[in-house]
């Protein structure tokens, strides 16, 4: 996939909006690019991966990139509205012959986590790679506009859910396994309209570093990826149509990124090529180096 193609798709994005989090990929125009056209090299062959928020956006791109590298996949999506997106993700990975499993589940509920990990182990035969990617965001103009309910919902999905799933997964993991967390540029730069969301991403970044130190003696690596403005269903489900149209223009590259441009960072961190990396964050943000 060429730079020119990414730029062409970016320019085609007009005004659009969705009314419910975390958004539906099949309703986006143009559709996000989740396949960069590269071939896999077997770097994850034999691995079993679980991706939360794996139905669309960055999660879908990660699923395809992992499948190309030979990993069996389990993906989790939030509710019935996203089922068709999840099914499309599994159709996209089908040509690569990997084993797949999908499940509708709310990761924010602690009681769901241990049974989920057990079902993944039963369906795939184990768990080697956990990708915590599920998330929500609700913009507000001032701190006074952030209700207690919103604060709880944002933290319960973005951080508590990540914590619960990770806690359950660690009990099943062994030396050589990997945990990857999706943080955000907002954890480093802040965001005047996404204060609670940015706070969850800051918590994820600190948790990534701390868990990495905690698990280093067990040989389990923990790293993160911090995307910048990426064209995912979360964008039209978050912002008004004018902001959607101009999303990403303030980056040094002057465009939004595509999920396919982020997925490679997860592949690298999940593979043995990153064997000397833990507690680290890769920034994929169109050149906003001040965030790192």
From TrEMBL:
Xref: Pfam families: adh_short_C2 (PF13561)
GO-annotated biological processes: bile acid metabolic process
GO terms for MF: oxidoreductase activity, acting on CH-OH group of donors
Alphabetical keyword list: Oxidoreductase
Region of interest called Disordered, as start-end residue ranges on this chain: 1-40
Family: Belongs to the short-chain dehydrogenases/reductases (SDR) family.
Protein name (record): SDR family oxidoreductase
Organism lineage string: Bacteria, Bacillati, Bacillota, Bacilli, Bacillales
